[in-house]
């Protein structure tokens, strides 16, 4: 069970990337008061958690309605995760890319903080793959939800203490960590594709 929890934690920490969100949060809240920063961090974390919980509950139902086997989704999801990982490794780092999306007219807690910084496409795919009802027991699905919410909570805490943390790692440090997370994510993505192909071919 501990191995399962650790594996899920690493995957969610990689796709949600709380550390990579710190520079985005700092850029967004540069002119905000301490109280306002707390409100933005809380709203971003709660919104991201809500989005991911929605796909935990409704994701597989949506696939069933449109008659797409989860093995097909796992293969497609793995490919998307792999492409997402490549952008983390070779493209602009997460902080650089998402800071460029900041629009003063938008609710910054929702965009780009909650979506796509925390509830990223990779996180949505991960939560759907790890809560497949035919593959995982209710207990395992519950563990997935708890781990996912724990990572989102960690992201919220890191945003609250972002100024102090950023003094130590800087934007370059956050970019390096984001790229390392991308490398780990690429391995997870390949595993998902191979697992999906195995399930599809053995039917």
Automatic annotation (TrEMBL):
Keyword Zinc appears in the UniProt entry: no
Localization of this protein: Cell membrane
Key words, A-Z: Cell membrane, Membrane, Transmembrane, Transmembrane helix
GO CC term (a single one): plasma membrane
Transmembrane segments: 6-28, 44-66, 72-90, 110-130, 142-161, 173-194
Membrane topology: Multi-pass membrane protein
Family statement: Belongs to the UPF0056 (MarC) family.
NCBIfam families the record matches: NAAT family transporter
UniProt-recorded name of the protein: UPF0056 membrane protein
């Amino acid at each position: 069970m501990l191995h399962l929890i650790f594996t899920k934690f690493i995957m969610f920490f990689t796709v949600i990337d709380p550390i990579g969100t710190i520079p985005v949060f700092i850029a967004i809240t540069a002119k905000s008061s301490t109280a306002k920063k707390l409100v933005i961090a809380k709203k971003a974390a709660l919104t991201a958690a809500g989005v991911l919980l929605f796909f935990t509950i409704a994701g597989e139902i949506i696939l069933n309605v449109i008659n797409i086997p989860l093995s097909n989704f796992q293969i497609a999801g793995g490919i998307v995760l792999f492409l997402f990982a490549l952008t983390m490794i070779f493209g602009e780092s997460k902080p650089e890319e998402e800071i460029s999306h900041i629009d003063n007219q938008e609710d910054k807690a929702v965009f780009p903080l909650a979506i796509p910084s925390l509830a990223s496409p990779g996180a949505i795919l991960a939560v759907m793959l790890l809560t497949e009802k035919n593959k995982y027991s209710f207990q395992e699905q519950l563990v997935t939800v708890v781990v996912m919410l724990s990572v989102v909570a960690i992201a919220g805490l890191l945003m609250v203490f972002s100024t102090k943390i950023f003094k130590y790692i800087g934007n370059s440090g956050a970019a390096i960590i984001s790229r390392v997370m991308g490398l780990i994510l690429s391995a997870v993505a390949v595993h998902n594709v191979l697992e999906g192909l195995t399930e599809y071919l053995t039917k």
